[in-house]
Amino acid sequence: MSHRTRVIIVGGGMVGARCAEELRSRSSSVDIVVLGDEQHLAYNRVLLSTALAGTIDPAGTELHPARWWSERDIDFRTSTAVQFIDVAARNLLADGPAGREQLDFDHLVFATGARSFFPPALTSANDVGRPEILGLRDREDCERVLAAARGARNIAVIGGGVLGVEIADALARNPAVADRGARVALLHPGDAPMDKQLGATPGAILARCVCEQGIDLVLGARATGVEEGGLRLSDGEFVPADLVVVSAGVRANTALAEGAGVDVRRGIVIDERCATSAGGVWAAGDCAEFEGVPTGTLRPGWEQAEVVAHNICAEAPRAIAHRREAVRLKIDALDVASFGRWCVEPFDWEPGGPEVTVLSDPAAGRYGKLVVESGRIVGGVLVGMDDVVGAVTQMFDSGARAPLDRLAMLTGTESAGVGGEPEPADMPGEHTVCQCNAVTKDALVRAHGDGARDVPAVADRTRATTGCGTCRAKVEKILGWLDAEGAHTRETVSV
Predict the structure, then answer these.
(1) Stretch 452-466: mean pLDDT, rounded?
(2) Alpha-carbon distance 96 to 106, whole Å?
(3) What single DSSP character describes residue 333?
(4) In which element (H, E) is residue 48 found?
(5) N or C, fewer C-beta in 10 Å, the chain?
(6) What pLDDT is recorded for position 398?
(7) Rounded Cα–Cα distance for residues 47 and 43 (Å)
(8) Axis crossing angle, helix 472-483 with helix 441-449, rounded to the nearest 10
(9) What Å distances lie between residue 344 and 375, 395, 403, CA to CA?
(10) Residue 419: which of 435, 404, 408, 433 has the closest Cα?
């Protein structure tokens, strides 16, 4: 009997799951084994901050049920920890519910992700009276934070980056917190939340919005110790807290790779094919580092998973495409986007260099900056610009030429040829609806024509809405249009 290639994926998170899906879509003859150390099947980790608001259950973030994986002949194992990897012998030792087992492999994929970073000052031995200190990295973290928040009088969130702002906003809106009059404080060492992605004026707008949501914003704050009843800051101020949620960055999980002799720096070092220093060993997602930079966000992690699957199954190699990334803040009160080389300022201009257009209306909570070079958007910041954020980030993502009237583009006037999100009937087929998964309107139309008539069915066929989830309303609108009488006739014209 001929040998079947076996691929073992170490890590059962979103990137590991995507790699398994992509492998199966390319080959029916590859044996695929996913080893996840969590007790849950793969789930949408991006939605965990949303779950803190109490609007969805953490269990509802699961990507696929067990039957889905079984039907595709993917051996997805939970509660399984890899103990040791022998790259030369092509085997590993795993400890799972059935005990220890040695597994052979032809290819191994590291998708071990990252863990929350806790500054040394934020340690607690759970002493009586001291706050509970938690991170938010996995589903069990989310469930622990929710359980602790239900009884907390004061909650402190450390770190005002994207995730920190989302955590504070979600907890402040959670009825189990708000209805008891519990206080939520957001502590950030910078001058404004998301200062590394926004800059002064848009950061100040976001800061005001955070305060308007009933969150106590403490800037320039560095916790120097945990005391009874709260945190002590570097300036001597005391912040009361029964629960501390830390969002101070992450560290790649590289111990297994390092123990196997694979090159590791801040992450597992990969080349443009996502190959590591060891033959037949690959890495993707938050555990990986490419050209000195950790992966960091979901979309490039998914792309790396696809590249790994392609390079395992195909003869012609494929390289990482370096897709451009926009950072979006998911809070109901304010739409915030930052992308590309946003930090270029108007007076940095020089002949042949980037051109910067700024529209600033802080009183109305609106700010827009566009950085254009060689006729294309290379960076920008949009705060409170709900009408144009979709169209502008779409133009940045696609690399399409920007209109000459940049101010009109920011205001969404017709003279720019860019407005808000177009109506489904007017939307071109190549329009990207789901940025996380690069799902176009054409793909949604095809899925609908194949019988996918609701969001879960469309998500199963196209993966739309399975990333950050912000495209759900657009997908629902397109499905409603397709369901309407005569929509299919109009669709053939629009695409």
Answers:
(1) 78
(2) 21
(3) T
(4) helix 48-51
(5) N
(6) 79
(7) 9
(8) 50
(9) 16, 19, 19
(10) 408
Question: Strand runs (DSSP E) across 312-465, as ranges?
Answer: 326-331, 334-340, 355-361, 366-373, 376-383, 432-434, 439-440
Distance from the first to the final alpha carbon of the chain: 49
> Dihedral of the CA atoms 418, 421, 427, 432 (nearest 10)?
100
**pTM, 2 dp:** 0.87
When pLDDT is cut at 50, 70 and 90, the band that residue 381 belongs to is very high
Pick from 326, 280, 283: nearest CA to 432: 326
The residues with which 294 forms a beta bridge, in sequence order, are: 289
Over residues 154-194, the pLDDT tens digits come to 999 999 999 999 999 999 999 999 999 999 999 999 999 99
Q: What is the pLDDT of residues 332-379, one digit of tens each?
A: 899 999 999 888 888 776 777 789 999 999 999 999 999 999 899 999
Contacting residues for 485 by C-beta, under 8 A, at least 6 apart: none
Q: Are 138 and 181 in contact (CB under 8 A)?
A: no
Q: Distance between CA 185 and CA 168 in Å, rounded?
A: 7
232 CB neighbour count, 10 Å cutoff: 15
Phi, then psi, of 466 in degrees rounded to 5: -90, 5
List all residues 6 or more positions away from 67 whose beta carbon is below 8 Å from its beta carbon: none
pLDDT at 491: 42
Neighbour-count burial of 75, counting CB atoms closer than 10 A to its CB (0-12 exposed, 13-18 middle, 19+ buried): middle
Residue 8 sits at φ, ψ, to 5 deg, of -110, 125
**In this model, does residue 459 exceed pLDDT 70?**
yes
Q: What pLDDT does 494 receive?
A: 38
Averaged pLDDT for residues 212-220 = 95
**pLDDT tens digits, residue range 17-43?**
999 999 999 999 999 999 999 999 999
What number of residues does the chain have?
Answer: 495
Query: What is the spatial distance between Cα 48 and Cα 45, in angstroms, rounded to a whole number?
Result: 5
CA distance linking residue 420 with residue 404, whole number of Å:
18
